[in-house]
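ok here's TRAP transporter large permease protein, seq below lol
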Amino acid sequence: MEPVLMGTLGLGLSLVLILLRVPIAFALGAMAVSCIYAFFAFPAAGGMQLQGAIAPALTLVTNTYFGLFHSYDLTAVPLFIALGHICYRAGITSDIYFAARTWLTRVPGGLAVASILGCCGFSAISGSSVACAATMGRIAVPEMRKYGYSDRLASGAVAAGGTLGALIPPSLLFILYGIFAEQSISRLFLAGVVPGIISMLSYCLVVAIWATWNPASAPPATEQYSLRDRMVAAARSWPAVLILVIIIGGIYGGYFTATEAAAVTFFIALFISAVGRRITMADFIEAMRETAVQSAAIFVIAGAAKVFVTFVSLTGVATWLVDLVQQADLSTVWLILAIVLVYLVLGMFLDPLGIMLLTLPFTIPLVESHGFNLIWFGVIVVKLLEMGLITPPVGLNVFVLNSVVTPKIPVERMFVGVAPFFLMDLVVLALLLVFPALSLWMASAI
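and the structure came out like this:
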């Protein structure tokens, strides 16, 4: 069988399995292994080698898995996940929200703005958008509803704010993108800082406009905090600030790699939590258990995706696709718009990790052939995946938020609430596309 035809069929069947809700790891892994075996069993030159194909197929698959799991960069994943769990159980992430709340009581929509800033701080520690939405949903949404905020604004601010975990370092998506695209993870982290801050400020702008346009949806706060109360709240958030400074400053200053920053901040967070008696042994054990479960799930998905990348390379589908696009003579603008559209559509149905690992084998060769910077493209991809977290009908952050908020807010109302934030995301995306320097100026420092 022709390799390109085999590759196209394998890709098509993988998409069918994913749409049938087969877990992404099983869909990509099983199809890739089957097609790699078929590649050797039914060579393009003709003939059939059913038994002789077993050894080369197994060798290729096992070497691929070993190469991925032997990656130094991949060790940052469980370290950053563990950092997030320790900080959550020690209350370090919650302190950011309460500090922002005390300082923003007089700002229009102050509680919603504080929620977004809290999400930003949580994201800068945990690197997980879904975990951010789940945690801040338990803390911030009940507070906003208690003070008369509309369900749409309260849920929309937290669901959208939770997506900041995809852009603001440390981001698990950036780590996996760097491994698969063979780019510096430290540079990707730095490239996400400015777009993450712009996204955060744009969400705050949405809240301010919403609260000004419809004051009933965000009543003024009745609580008054003294300067001493505000200073105490700000002081309590010093561990989170320290961790963020070490990650960004250490990488930007050239003192740490991303993996080293993960290890250093994990032990600092653990030391602060233990000395300050913020965490018990039971909390620590539970945090490590959750870290092991999440890390194992990510490793299984990443391993299956790596085998899928090997299968794509083996069959030459990516090269064929690049040639096809070049023959179509698409301009760079139309190519980028087509890629953006594909990611936005996939974001309506699939989870971010699955989308990224499914599409990178095809999009990276395309953008490379047109001379685009892969660090900049990584920021664009992660921003698009971030937008997918609040896109109906499968916006993960919305459904996670719906599962943790009590009393329940209908999912339909939540999606209405995130709509203004999604529109602002489109504006930010346009800025990042038109002005690549927004992503690259910090990354160029190392």
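fwiw DSSP finds 21 helices and no strands in the chain. kinda neat tbh
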